[in-house]
Design brief:
The chain is of the alpha+beta class and 112 residues long. It has 2 helices and 6 strands; from the N terminus they run E-H-E-E-E-E-H-E. Strands 2-5-1-6 form a 4-stranded antiparallel beta sheet, with helices on one face. The chain has a two-stranded antiparallel sheet with strand order 3-4.
């Protein structure tokens, strides 16, 4: 089992969610996060004063998938989140050693 974490632009959330739902993904965790990469933030004017916004708003998706589904899920996320501009985001994949569903006690693949 793998954990896929995707950091994407906020306005792409619905596109990514719809693509994952069509692919049969039944659950995910979504968080509002802030950060920066190569974008390095940007400057804004407010009441005539310029200030720097270092951390940009992003959305972080977390989902657990079977090993054999990782590549197809990454492609779905990439295709639906891509704008072609800087700041589109990143996808991280890590191993999951154990899952336990609290309500039933089911473990691992059965608990997904």
């Amino acid at each position: 089992m793998k954990k896929i974490e995707a950091v994407i632009k906020p306005f792409k959330l619905e596109d990514v969610k719809d693509a994952l739902t069509e692919a049969g993904i039944t659950g995910m965790t979504v968080s509002d996060v802030k950060g920066y990469g190569r974008q390095q933030g940007h400057s804004e004017l407010y009441r005539g004063a310029e200030y720097v916004v270092d951390f940009l708003p992003k959305i972080k998706l977390e989902l657990i998938v079977a090993d054999e589904d990782v590549d197809s899920i990454i492609k779905l996320i990439t295709d639906s989140a891509k704008t072609g501009k800087i700041g589109d985001g990143k996808i991280f994949v890590s191993n999951i050693e154990k899952i336990v569903r609290i309500r039933t006690g089911e473990e691992d693949e059965e608990a997904i």
